[in-house]
TrEMBL record:
Entry GO CC: cytoplasm
Domain of life: Eukaryota
PANTHER family per UniProt: GAMMA-2-SYNTROPHIN, SYNTROPHIN
Gene it is expressed from: SNTG2
Keywords assigned: Cytoplasm
Any Pfam family: Syntrophin_4th
Presence of keyword Endoplasmic reticulum: no
MF terms (GO), sorted A to Z: structural molecule activity
Record's protein name: Gamma-2-syntrophin
InterPro entries found in the cross-reference section: Syntrophin, Syntrophin_4th
Length: 217
C-alpha cells in the first residue's frame, strides 16, 4: 500500500526505483479487500464473507490467515500472513488507506453507455452519483448516496442502480454499461464506506471481522 495505489511484487521493494517494477498496480478505490477465513480456538474455520453478492474463492491450501484483494475485470490476488494480528493490521490498513484516498481524490469518473449514448458516470464524495453527456457535459441525472437503495448486475458489463426519488418516493432504475464493471462497483463501495465512516468514526471498527476476533481472543 503506497499513496493511492496497491502494488503487487514478486519480491519486496528495497529502493525507490523498485516501485516502478511492480508486477501489478491497482488504484485503491477500485479494489476490494476481503478476509476469507481464519482459525478459531475450537479448531474449526469460519468463512468470512464481508461483502454480500461476492462469491468465495476455492483455496487449495489450508493456511489459516488468508485475505484476498479483488480487482477489475475479475482479477484477484490471495495472500497469507503468519498471525491473526497481522491479518487485522492489513484489514485496518486497507480501510484507512482507501478512506484517505477517497477524501483526497474527491471523485472518480468513468465512461459508460446508457440508452445507446456514450456518457460519463461520476462518483463524488460530496455530491453522490452524477450521469452526464460526455460532449456537452449536460447533467442527465444526479442522486445522493442515501438515495441508492439497491443494485443488480449481470456480472459482465451491465448494472442497474436503484435510486429513490425524494419527491415521489418512487424507485427509479438507471441502467448503465461499463467496460470494467467490477472496478466501478468497487469504487462505489469505497466511496459509500468512506461516506459512512466520515459521519460515524466507529463504522470502520464495527466492520472489521479480524479485529473483532483478535479482541475477543
Amino acid at each position: 500500500l503506497k499513496g493511492p495505489s496497491f502494488y503487487v511484487f514478486s519480491t519486496p521493494p528495497v529502493s525507490t526505483f523498485d516501485w516502478v517494477r511492480a508486477e501489478r498496480t491497482y488504484h485503491l478505490c477500485e479494489v476490494l479487500f476481503k478476509v476469507h477465513k481464519f482459525w478459531l480456538a475450537e479448531d474449526c474455520w469460519l468463512q468470512a464473507n464481508l461483502y454480500l453478492g461476492l462469491q468465495d474463492f476455492d483455496f487449495e491450501d489450508q493456511r489459516p490467515y488468508c485475505f484476498s484483494v479483488m480487482a477489475g475485470h475479475g482479477k484477484s490476488h490471495v495472500f497469507n500472513v503468519e498471525l491473526g494480528s497481522e491479518l487485522a493490521v492489513w484489514e485496518k490498513s486497507f480501510q484507512r488507506a482507501t478512506f484517505m484516498e477517497v477524501q483526497r481524490s474527491g471523485s472518480r469518473t468513468y465512461m459508460c453507455s446508457w440508452q445507446g449514448e456514450m456518457l460519463c458516470f461520476t462518483v463524488d464524495f460530496a455530491m453522490g452519483f452524477t450521469c452526464f453527456e460526455s460532449k456537452t457535459k449536460n447533467v442527465l441525472w444526479r442522486f445522493k448516496f442515501s438515495q441508492l437503495k439497491g443494485s443488480s448486475d449481470d456480472g459482465k458489463t451491465r448494472v442497474n442502480l436503484l435510486f429513490q426519488n425524494l419527491d415521489t418516493k418512487q424507485i427509479e432504475t438507471k441502467e448503465l454499461e461499463f467496460q470494467d464493471l467490477t472496478a466501478v462497483l468497487h469504487c462505489v463501495h469505497s466511496f459509500i464506506a468512506a461516506k459512512v465512516a466520515s459521519v460515524d468514526p466507529g463504522f470502520v471498527d464495527s466492520q472489521s471481522l479480524a479485529t473483532k476476533y483478535m479482541c475477543s481472543s
